[in-house]
Amino acid sequence: MTGTGEERLLPVDRGSAAVLPMVFAITAADAGQRLDHFLATKYPERTRSALNKLIVASLVLVDGNQVKAGHRLRKSETITVILPPPEPVGLIPERVEFSVLHEDAHILVINKPPGLVVHPAGGHQSGTLVHGLLHRCRELPSADAGRPGIVHRLDKDTSGVMLVAKTEIALRVLMADFKDRNIHKTYHALLLRCPRESEGRVSSPIGRHPIDRKKMAVRPVHGRHAATNWRVLERFANGWCWTEIEIETGRTHQIRVHMAAIKSPVAGDTLYGGGVDRQAAVRPQRQMLHASTLRFKHPVSGDPLKCTAPLADDIHQVLVHLRGGGR
Question: What does the DSSP assignment read for 204-271?
Fold first, then answer.
């Protein structure tokens, strides 16, 4: 765990079941932090939303009292965190097609096909990647109900490499590594309009769109830091280009938002201005974005790993057409 708060386990009787809450003694180095920010450093495998639910449910106490998420910590305060047992997920394993790039006792690396939703949400309660993972692995650790094994996500229509945790220790380490930006992600994207420059960097905060809640947007005041590096690999006769993109952060829709912000949206991305003219010879049916490579250290052995996912067939076919001079 990160952070400087001294920690220990303390047996507490809660009804008929004894649990072992974690107790943190706040030091001078921790003083001044918000409670929710402090907890995020201690439990990197849990989302900020999940931690806030614990605070609201009085499962996080400061000197025995319930406080708000924004409470500023003071030296010598004691934080008690009671983690309830995980709720049964109730997911029924299903056979879902995806290819495996690497697998061992602790992790699974897959090539996610386009059109596959990662976990149950909204109108997708079956047929997700999670259902398929449970069909293959049966038991997976979970930081949030409904998302066993998931340590990061790809959009439904983005294809490519995804990393899955098969054990609790792998889940914790990988969640922390993603949070600390120790996992390096490379994407490839076909852009609808090619930038003049051969390479560049976009560093613009991203947050929820103020009007359309399904979208993200560049939000200079209310957004979170996000940085994207891009490099043009090929330019085509119709003005499109094939690019390699590396992200320093992992915000929702980051590449799609940043490339649209520089007037070079991902081809086929109708949500962010990448729609293709009806008269065009090439009309992608989804955003032409592929997560190509993940470089990381194995969460248990520490060995360096590099996993690369072959391009999805639809992207490959579009590139073949463009390289032949097609418009």
Answer: --EEE-SS-TT-EEE-TTTSB--EEEEEEEEE-TTS-EEEEEEESS--TTHHHHHHHHTT-PBTT-GG
**Between 35-42 and 48-56, two packed helices, what is the crossing angle to 10 degrees?**
120
Q: Which residues pair with 247 in a beta bridge?
A: 185, 228
pLDDT band (50, 70, 90) for residue 13? very low
The CA–CA distances, whole Å, from 26 to 45, 144, 222 equal 21, 27, 30
| Cα distance between residue 273 and residue 261, in whole Å | 10
Task: Give residue-wise pLDDT tens across range 300-327.
Answer: 999 999 999 999 999 999 999 999 865 5
Contacts 24+ apart (CB under 8 A), 15-23: 19/82, 19/83, 19/84, 21/80, 21/81, 21/82, 21/83, 22/80, 22/81, 22/83, 23/78, 23/79, 23/80, 23/81
CA 268 to chain centre: 22
As a dihedral over the C-alpha atoms of residue 70, residue 73, residue 77, residue 79, rounded to 10 degrees, the angle is 50
Highest mean pLDDT among 85-89, 122-126, 162-166, 171-175: 162-166
Whether the Cβ atoms of residue 318 and residue 290 lie closer than 8 Å to each other: no
pLDDT of residue 6: 54
| 104 a catalytic residue | no
Confidence category of residue 193, pLDDT binned at 50, 70, 90: very high
Which of 231, 240, 242, 235 lies closest to 198, judged by CA?
231
Q: Which position among 13, 30, 104, 155 bears the catalytic label?
A: 155
54: how many CB neighbours lie within 10 A of its CB?
Answer: 19
How many CB atoms sit inside 10 A of residue 134's CB? 20
Task: Report pLDDT for 142.
Answer: 81
Read off the tokens for 187. Answer: 């994407």
**Has residue 119 got a pLDDT over 80?**
yes
Task: Tell me how far apart the alpha carbons of residues 266 and 275 are, in angstroms, rounded to a whole number.
Answer: 9
